[in-house]
Automatic annotation (TrEMBL), chain A:
It holds the Pfam family IspD. Keywords: Cell wall biogenesis/degradation, Nucleotidyltransferase, Teichoic acid biosynthesis, Transferase. This is Ribitol-5-phosphate cytidylyltransferase. Pathway: Cell wall biogenesis; poly(ribitol phosphate) teichoic acid biosynthesis. The lineage of its organism: Bacteria, Bacillati, Bacillota, Bacilli, Lactobacillales. PANTHER family: 2-C-METHYL-D-ERYTHRITOL 4-PHOSPHATE CYTIDYLYLTRANSFERASE, CHLOROPLASTIC, RIBITOL-5-PHOSPHATE CYTIDYLYLTRANSFERASE. The keyword Metal-binding does not apply. Its EC number is 2.7.7.40. One of its GO terms (molecular function) is 2-C-methyl-D-erythritol 4-phosphate cytidylyltransferase activity.
From TrEMBL, chain B:
The gene is tarJ. Catalyzes the NADPH dependent reduction of D-ribulose 5-phosphate to D-ribitol 5-phosphate. Its cofactor is Zn(2+). This is Ribulose-5-phosphate reductase. InterPro entries: ADH-like_N (IPR013154), Glu_dehyd_C (IPR031640), GroES-like_sf (IPR011032), NAD(P)-bd_dom_sf (IPR036291), TarJ (IPR034710). Residues 25-133 form the Alcohol dehydrogenase-like N-terminal domain.
Amino acid sequence: MIYAQILAGGKGTRMGHVKMPKQFLTLADKPILIHTVEKFVLESRFAAILIVCPADWLSHTKEIVHRYIHDDRVKVVTGGAERNETLMQGINYLQTHYDLTDDDVVITHDAVRPFITQRIIADNITAALQYPAVDTVVPAIDTIVQGATESVTTIPVRESMYQGQTPQSFNIQALIKAYDKLTTDQKATLSDSCKICLLAGETVHLVRGENFNFKITTPYDLKVATALVETRE
Amino acid sequence: MLNQVYRLVAARQFEVQTVDEVLAPTDIIVRPTYLSLCHADQRYFTGNRSQTALRKKLPMALIHEGVGTVVADPQGEFKPGDLVAMVPNTPTKTNEIVKENYLPSSKFRSSGYDGFMQEYVFLHRDRAIKIPKDFDPQMAAFIEMVSVGVQALTQLKHTMDADQKVIGIWGDGNLGYITATLAKTMFPNSQLVVFGRHQDKLDYFSFVDATYLVDDVPENVQVSQAIECTGGLGSAQAIDQIIDHIQPMGTVVLMGVSEQPIDINTRMVLERGLTLQGSSRSGRQDFQQAVDILSHSAVTRERLQNLIGVTGTVHTLPEVTEFFERDLANYWGKAVMRWAV
């Protein structure tokens, strides 16, 4: 089976003095999260679409989902304190509520990337059915510079640099095994879900993203996102 | 819903635009799968339209021939996965006399209104025609063009006199081939004669009764009714020749699009009592009839299979541009792209 998991656990600390987490802010008259979920419900191959959100925002999430989304496959689940904990809370939900097999896969996606396309979702599904882990990336446009404090330590060759996006997709059993191998420290600090599998020695396959599949993290991003959307006449 | 629309913004330049779409209860959502290129799309792509037209119509998503799979229907009439042909003509009014494709108020995809080069197409449900599962989707992609042929031949039936003995078709391109294929089915008792400029193209018309190169037509060749499928400046020469070879009181259906006005020998039109009947585009009814004809005639489907020319899958806008360029260099058949953008 193929499952989707929308990671909506963020607290929106980079959005400035906004009380509401960024995934619930409005873009084109709807919460950003809803735009994202709308893309996933159009993929009929998903057996379930989980929205994993902060505990404090569970009822709010359920209410907006009820208002905008009419699809029984969508379930709202409480996430954890950190990104990986949120991811694994969703996996726990799948383990508890569905009869998972070794072939089952999950497509995970940031709630705050509403410009996801059908093609990116479809490419992730195809790749996840073939590889243990899948990362969505775009080639780096700017030169990536690695540095410490005030000086550059190295400048990697740009042609081999990519910027990571989501979806990140996994064979569910491979992800669980890889996560179990992590130390408590690693579990708390790893900011990228694919790295869980990479550290466990699994192959992480690349899928091409889109530059416009960006993450709405700052007030600037929200301005850009708003400017990008045209209303159909 | 945030939908990605891939628009032509200038000659040979496509850009993506996010459009916030609203799904009305009367609409369905279709994921385009196979899209077929038309000369009209190429005229926009290469910038071979007047500057006024380009300024007025661009940016715009191209393509008005295509099929897709249904992904959402609020009323449940269509199931996810249903293959449908998308009708590009979108009426905004109805009229008891004027057909939907001739109403000035109708919108037409890829002509001032976004075509099918989109992530998802939001379509009024009566603009989707179910395609049988045994149809090749690459062939089904140009059912729109088949429906245009149906429209023209239906018009001919209504307009022409009782003489159905010989139907003459001028034009050996895609439109001529499709119209000849349909005429074989819709006028089964008529002789079918095709006039063209290229012997190697005329060779594809093995199912007709006779073919002639236009510079070598015997004087005694006569047709009862004629259909012009040339377009461009060639239309003038074709219409001239039709006037020479058509029976008095015959009907000439004009289908070819010419960018510039062309000369017509009206003295001879008057003298012979000819009827000139314009035919353009098609409506839902023509689509349904096209699907019905193809459903009941395996041989017609087979003939149209032979019209599939350039094919390929496109994933990115540079690949789309390359596909349009490949079609420009293509000599025979329709260019059909599998849409994976």
